[in-house]
Structures are given as structure tokens and as C-alpha cells.
Amino acid sequence: MKKYLIAISMFFVSLAALAYGEAGQWSSGWAQGVSEYAAVVSRGNEFYMACQSDKGVYMSVKVNGKEYGPDAKKGFNIEVNGKVLERPYVTDNMVGEQNFNYLLQQIQKGKQLKVITADGQTLVLPTKNEAKAIPKRNDCHSGF
């Protein structure tokens, strides 16, 4: 009986670990009409993006377990190729749309991304599988 409890516990722990993908790389998935993309550095340090064909994009990031983004009290920026994209999850205007499209292109090229939170925390995202995670044809588009 003890073996079964351990096996069931390990199963649920592994499901939780896979929720955002494997540490050190990008991953993608699809469920209920939503394409999901994640870059996991380590537990509590991850970038998440969700795209729906009939809606805009949603992004959030966790740094040391603290969440940043549109649903959190503090936002974040992303630096790519020396260019800082301010609040890249705000895509309902022309500048936001341009920044989001630029970000997607850089992800598809496998470029290094660095998240900078409103309170100065930084998180360098992994590049492993980055270019493969978000294909050229995808459900991601701005809300503009």
C-alpha cells in the first residue's frame, strides 16, 4: 500500500513540474483553444505567454516566486538585442503591437531575452528550444 501512495504522489508531483515545462529551456503546448509558451529558468523563475486566435496575448513572469505582469501589482519589460520593450504584454496600441511583433521575431530567431521587473529584478531566459517553441505560423497576435 505504501508503494502505491508513493507512486501516486510522485505522479502528481511530476504533473506539477511539467505545468510550465522543463528547467533551462522553452516549451510549448496547446489546450482548450489556447497556445501556451514557457521559458523556465528554475522553479519560481519562469516566463509564460498564452495566445488565442480570437484574442490578444497574455504574458506573465515569475522571478524568485513573485509574479509580474498584467494581473500583478508590478509589471515587467523585456530586453532583446539591447532594445528594451516596455510592458510587452500591453498590445492594444500601435507601439505595443510593433513591440510584440518584434519580440516574436526575436524569439523565433533564438535571441537572448532578459526580463527586467518594475522593482529591478532581472531574469535571463534560456535560449534552448526557443526558436522551435513558437513557430512562424501561430495564434499569437496583438490586441490592436
Keywords summarizing the entry:
alpha+beta, disordered N terminus, 4-stranded antiparallel beta sheet, 144 residues, 5-stranded antiparallel beta sheet
Overview of the structural elements:
The chain has 144 residues and is α+β, with helices and mostly antiparallel strands. It has one domain (2-133). It has helices spanning 2-18, 94-108, 130-133, and strands spanning 25-31, 34-42, 45-51, 57-63, 66-68, 76-80, 83-85, 113-117, 122-124. The strands form two sheets. Strands 1-2-3-4-5 form a five-stranded antiparallel β-sheet. Strands 7-6-8-9 form a four-stranded antiparallel β-sheet, covered by helices on one side.
Summarize the SSE layout with pairings.
Layout (H helix, E strand, L loop, with lengths): L1 H17 L6 E7 L2 E9 L2 E7 L5 E7 L2 E3 L7 E5 L2 E3 L8 H15 L4 E5 L4 E3 L5 H4 L11
Antiparallel strand pairs: 1-2, 2-3, 3-4, 4-5, 6-7, 6-8, 8-9
